[in-house]
Amino acid sequence: MELRHLRYFLAVAEELNVTRAAARIGIAQPPLTQQIKALEAELGVELFHRVGRRIEISSAGAVFLEETRAILDRVAHATARAQRAGRGEIGKLRVGFTSSASFSPFVTEVLKTFRAEWPEVEVALEEHRTALLTEALKADRLDAAFVRPPLVDDALAVRWLATEPLVAAVPVAHAVAGRRSVRLAELRGDPLILYPRRGGSGLSDQITSECLRLGFSPKVGQEAPELAAAINFVAAGMGIAVVPACMRHLRPDAVRFLALTGSALHAELGLAQRSADRSEPVRNLFRIAEELSASHPSVTRKG
Q1: Kind plus residue range of the DSSP H or E element containing 166
Q2: Strand partners, 144
Q3: What is the Cα–Cα distance from 138 to 147, expressed in whole angstroms?
Q4: DSSP code for 252
Q5: Given a cut of 90, is residue 284 above it in pLDDT?
Q6: Running DSSP on this structure, what letter comes out for residue 89?
Q7: Reported pTM
Q8: Contacts of 97 (CB under 8 A, 6+ apart)
Q9: pLDDT digits (tens, 9 = 90+) for 204-248
Q10: Strand, coil or helix: 103
Q11: CA dihedral of 245, 251, 256, 260, whole degrees rounded to 10
């Protein structure tokens, strides 16, 4: 038994006229009559009573009609949902982000816009370091992730969407805390809070290289596992930190954030996915992110 047999039966049951049913479904009358007889033979029951030139649905046919309608309704529903999923209108999107990316107004706007455009797509969010996000993407535990450099992996595709300046975070009691800006060299005597070094283009390497360019070697006082933790270390008076500008609103009671002058230090922000992933929700997320990266006031477009 195939779905077409159910559709043939439904047409005849609703029309109670084989000629009209044949015209409705677009086949000739003799093949339709043969298909109904074959269906009755397969079921082992009579679906219709032939009364002269009229037909009437049998009691078995009435029960089969009810079930047929339910089956075809479910098929139509399944078809519509599959088509909507294929267009990215429903489903689930698993998105990761680094701790600093979670403070970015740009990331917030991307997620807000995606939810507004695709309200029936469930968005599940996870926060990890870039290295862990990379592994989660490759293991298919995430579909996309907002990441910081470094990220070089053939299994992943990353679109570097934006840059933002780095700023100096100093304790509220620091001598320069009342100023709006500072030169990095002015902070050479302060212990510098850095981050785990995971490659030559990471934030710690960028900061260290800039210090050396300015003629001094940084005095590393503490290593912070995450950027948010670095702000707390600054608040505790353990040193100063250089962080993305999006983190300015953290710990306003104990930390001051100053623009860095005479330096081109910046933080990159990208969106990564598996190279082979072609799912529509991921495509839609990337489209929104790329559109917003061109105009969002909190970031400067990369490249």
Answers
A1: strand 156-171
A2: 95
A3: 14
A4: T
A5: yes
A6: S
A7: 0.73
A8: 107, 125, 126, 127, 133, 145, 146, 147
A9: 888 999 999 999 999 988 888 888 889 999 999 999 999 999 999
A10: helix
A11: -20
- Write out the two tokens for 207: 């900061």
Enter the tokens of residue 258. 């100053």
Q: Where in the chain is the domain with CATH 3.40.190.10?
A: 91-161+268-301, 163-266
SS3 204: helix
Crossing angle of helices 3-15 and 29-43, rounded to 10°: 110
Q: How many C-beta atoms lie closer than 10 Å to residue 160's C-beta?
A: 18
Question: CB–CB of 241/193 below 8 Å?
Answer: yes
CATH fold of the domain at 3-86: Arc Repressor Mutant, subunit A (1.10.10)
- Three-state DSSP class for 62? helix
Strands 266-274 vs 144-147: parallel, antiparallel or unpaired: antiparallel
Say which CATH topology domain 91-161+268-301 has: D-Maltodextrin-Binding Protein; domain 2 (3.40.190)
Structure tokens at 48: 């219709």
